[in-house]
């Protein structure tokens, strides 16, 4: 990593973007902002050209895309993603983490917590505050017992990803990802709540609090 860490800041409010950049520069001894704006499509070429050490992403960019869709396309770059957002909805956070984000910190967090989260993310480690972790844990139970891999496959697939993309993000073959989805469907079928289509699975995942 270069002396000055490189950042992409994806946030739709200019004042918030400026404040984030100032905080990072002040506490990290100088930074390079590779891209600062609200367009994932514009950020991707900058990432490809200059690279980055951390992507700071707001979950609500008002771009018509779901948080999972934005996390998924950014995760393809291999750069760690730290969500810094006022959107504290556990399903949205959980789905984004499952899609490839490294961590989450609230916009209401103190500067010290933000810098800690950024520092941890720059080391390639996951970061989620104890409060957020507790909220995710308390709302992560489903009416049907699913394994962690089955739950993750359900979230990614129900969020609209194609099976090969689900498999890539889970680090498994497409056949294995398909098997996880088959197991999910079989378990819900057995419980009398079949989810034969992707739309049905999305509705079920939403009712279970797994996706926003």
How would you sum up this structure in a few lines?
By secondary structure, the protein is of the alpha/beta class.
Biggest sheet, strands in spatial order?
A: 2-1-3-4-5-6
Major sheet: 6 strands, parallel
Label the overall shape: elongated
CATH superfamily of the largest domain: Response regulator
CATH architecture grouping of the largest domain: 3-Layer(aba) Sandwich
Task: Give me the CATH fold name of the largest domain.
Answer: Rossmann fold
Helix/strand structural class = alpha/beta
State the helicity in percent bands. 40-55%
Q: Report the top-level CATH class of the largest domain.
A: Alpha Beta
Total separate domains? 2
Poorly predicted tracts of residues: none
Mean pLDDT: 87
Topology:
Layout: E1 6-10, H1 14-28, E2 32-37, H2 40-50, E3 54-57, H3 67-75, E4 81-85, H4 90-99, E5 103-106, H5 111-122, E6 127-128, H6 130-138, H7 148-158, H8 163-170, H9 174-190, H10 198-207
Parallel strand pairs: 1-2, 1-3, 3-4, 4-5, 5-6
Helix pairs in contact: 3-4, 7-8, 7-9, 7-10, 8-9
Protein architecture, described:
The protein has about 210 residues and is an alpha/beta fold. The protein has two domains: about 5-140, Rossmann fold; about 150-205, Orthogonal Bundle (Arc Repressor Mutant, subunit A). It is built from ten helices and six strands; from the N terminus they run E-H-E-H-E-H-E-H-E-H-E-H-H-H-H-H. A six-stranded parallel β-sheet has the order 2-1-3-4-5-6, with helices on both faces. The two termini are about 35 Å apart. The mean pLDDT is about 85.
């Amino acid at each position: 990593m270069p002396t000055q860490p490189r950042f992409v800041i994806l946030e739709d409010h200019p004042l918030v973007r400026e404040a984030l950049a100032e905080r990072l520069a002040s506490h990290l001894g100088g930074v390079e902002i590779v891209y600062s704006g609200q367009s994932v499509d514009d950020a991707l070429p900058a990432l490809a050209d200059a690279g980055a050490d951390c992507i700071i992403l707001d979950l609500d960019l008002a771009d018509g895309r779901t948080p999972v869709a934005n996390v998924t396309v950014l995760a393809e770059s291999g750069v760690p993603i730290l969500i810094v957002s006022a959107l504290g909805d556990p399903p949205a956070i959980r789905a984004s983490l499952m899609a490839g984000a490294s961590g989450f910190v609230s916009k209401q967090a103190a500067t010290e917590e933000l810098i800690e989260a950024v520092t941890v993310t720059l080391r390639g480690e996951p970061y989620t505050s104890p409060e957020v972790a507790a909220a995710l844990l308390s709302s992560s139970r489903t009416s049907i017992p699913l394994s962690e891999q089955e739950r993750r496959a359900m979230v990614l697939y129900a969020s609209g990803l194609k099976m090969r993309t689900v498999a890539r993000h889970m680090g498994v073959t497409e056949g294995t990802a398909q098997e996880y989805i088959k197991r999910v469907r079989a378990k819900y079928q057995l419980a009398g709540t079949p989810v034969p289509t992707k739309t049905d699975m999305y509705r079920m995942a939403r009712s279970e609090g797994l996706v926003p």
